[in-house]
């Protein structure tokens, strides 16, 4: 046989004897080398291991696939079988033979060897972590910590959406995720007037954007313009002077202080009495009425007529005319009315008199009352016992006065001489007395319309 032709003469004598491979030899573990003849037996022992007794004698005996006398990892295994992948012996061309996950088809599995094997998902044989296959032979995925070019903008290897990388895309304002410590909010829209602005800052008064609950937002800290620091529209009464529009603004709706409710500085003639400064303010330019042009209360004069008249006065207006004529004749000037009441309430002084705020005085300067309220409270400060200056007094000592008027200025009743048009002795009227300062000055008694009496004249 050809295998025998390779034997040397020195070994020929061994072939005739019953030599066999000694499993206890130095080569039994799969190593290679020259056969150690020290342990070669002279007789073929009976084997119970399944190994042919003559295996290792360099002679191909029946039952042997090969017999090269080697006890190592050659083409022939120590049990005289052809060395094949998976027999547990490291044979020619094999890098391993242990049938594990790291050894497949007797080749050692190594990531980046370009061969996908074992538990590898991929193996592109390069050292790049930025392509579809990482150096760990795993398919590139978002979150593996490696930037996959062309697919990922970033990969920080963590599941957090609060940092600068979200689903392997760089965080930006408007992505709907709040970037911690960078963004105050992120509502994922481009609406600038909601709770989160387009620059991902929480809406706040002063950011220059009109947000929820704000009427305006000019982005400055001035309260002197049209938008206050509270992001409310400026208005008269807000307590801040709107430059170019308001002269003042004291934050209230009062008209009796230095700044009117319309944010105009108070002044004499504005129609509002400035407390502690003005005695009156009638808002007109007439100096001779109740309030002077200096906003001082004009005092009003009063006298009892020097002339005497029956009840036929020509009505209430006729009595007024008589007062005016007497005042003009005395050089008093002004507008005058008679203190009498006719047939209806509208004819009474309480309804038709201008009520003085500067007081009532006799022509000689004696004060009769502080004002209208003082005049009609039932008690005068002085009797109205002086006639118009320079008059020729008729009926000297006669103190009766036509009135039909109560102390409060209202009508006494229906005793009014037919509306002050009759001097009939059949009619009577209520009367007062210039001799008294209490209610009797206007409510003293009654007398007939035929009796002549005086009238009270009041400046308006």
Automatic annotation (TrEMBL):
<keyword id="KW-1015">Disulfide bond</keyword>
<protein>
    <submittedName>
        <fullName>DUF4215 domain-containing protein</fullName>
    </submittedName>
</protein>
<keyword id="KW-0732">Signal</keyword>
<dbReference type="InterPro" id="IPR016187">
    <property type="entry name" value="CTDL_fold"/>
</dbReference>
<dbReference type="InterPro" id="IPR016186">
    <property type="entry name" value="C-type_lectin-like/link_sf"/>
</dbReference>
<dbReference type="InterPro" id="IPR011936">
    <property type="entry name" value="Myxo_disulph_rpt"/>
</dbReference>
<keyword id="KW-0677">Repeat</keyword>
<feature type="signal peptide">
    <location>
        <begin position="1"/>
        <end position="28"/>
    </location>
</feature>
<dbReference type="Pfam" id="PF13948">
    <property type="entry name" value="DUF4215"/>
</dbReference>
